Amino acid sequence: FSLESALRRALENNELLLHYQPQVDLISNQTTGFEALVRWNNAELGLISPTDFIPIAEEIGLIIPIGEFVLYTACLQAQQWRERHAVDINISVNLSGRQLIQANIVERILAIVESTGLPFNLLTIELTESILMDHSKETLDKLEKLSQSGFTISIDDFGTGYSSMSYLKRYPIDTLKIDRSFVSGLPEDANDVAITQAIIALAKNLDMKLVAEGVETEEQLEFLRVHKCDTAQGYLHSRPVVAEQAEQFILNKN
Ligand code: G
Ligand code: G
Ligand code: NA
Ligand code: MN
């Protein structure tokens, strides 16, 4: 009974679900969107972290159907919230490198999002830096098509990958997510302060938006607000929660 064989049956057995973590605008204090994060709940194995099963899913190719399930479910959820509450909610979805290298990935994304009715400008696609290191013509073409279709392209865990910055010029990137390893030391750690300020300055100069990840304290939030970061995501506002709980952030306007 291996993790792999269990994972192969997880989708059909409805063992995968999404949690949603609010993203809060630092000026208005309103929840403007959510990051969708996949969870695996198996009867025998219990709750398995994506850190443990996403690498396996990537290895055996299951990340393709799992990724499509995540994209469809997240976009449908955002569209339902939109219809129910007459408010536009941005939804962020993680795309793995294995998904992006599929020849028909752009067409797949367009078809899936279209089938949910969600306006394309409300989907953010999160990519890690390592995905963009190939500098291939194919990746460039795909990201340009996705960008021209109206999706937001965001770099996850910014600053922790291979730190060549040339891809920032090459690709149509809209948002940088400041990695939580930098946020965690704010506002005391001089290195984290310097790095965070540098990332914010970089994003401003390149006309990109900023999301700070892993915001856990009021002091971190205040630092980020003072330094003109746009959006905060972290346990201070909420852990990733099930859809019904996430909806409360829309109702309460946070
Ligand atoms: O939610 P949590 O902190 O447990 O997520 C752990 C890791 O799993 C993070 O790096 C996150 O980006 C990744 N992850 C969560 N959901 C998805 C998903 O739907 N697709 C991919 N590719 N990665 C995900
Ligand atoms: O790699 P990625 O940035 O997608 O990972 C998101 C992960 O970060 C999720 O597993 C989520 O549970 C976790 N996370 C979100 N907010 C916080 C936080 O405030 N503190 C910590 N330690 N982890 C967080
Ligand atoms: Na992410
Ligand atoms: Mn991240």
Low-confidence residue ranges: none
CATH superfamily label: EAL domain
Q: What are the distinct ligands in this entry? A: guanosine-5'-monophosphate, sodium ion, manganese (II) ion
Q: Output the helix-strand order.
A: HEEEHHEHHEHEHEHHEHEH
Q: Please, how many helices?
A: 11
Q: How many independent structural domains?
A: 1
Question: Strand order within the widest sheet?
Answer: 1-2-4-5-6-7-8-9
N- to C-terminal separation? 43 Å
> What share of residues are in beta strands?
15-25%
What is the CATH topology assignment? TIM Barrel
How much is the radius of gyration in Å? 18 Å
Description:
With 254 residues, the chain is an alpha/beta fold. The mean pLDDT is 95. It is built from eleven helices and nine strands. It has an eight-stranded mixed β-barrel, surrounded by four helices. The structure holds guanosine-5'-monophosphate (2 copies), sodium ion (NA) and manganese (II) ion (MN). One guanosine-5'-monophosphate binds next to β6.
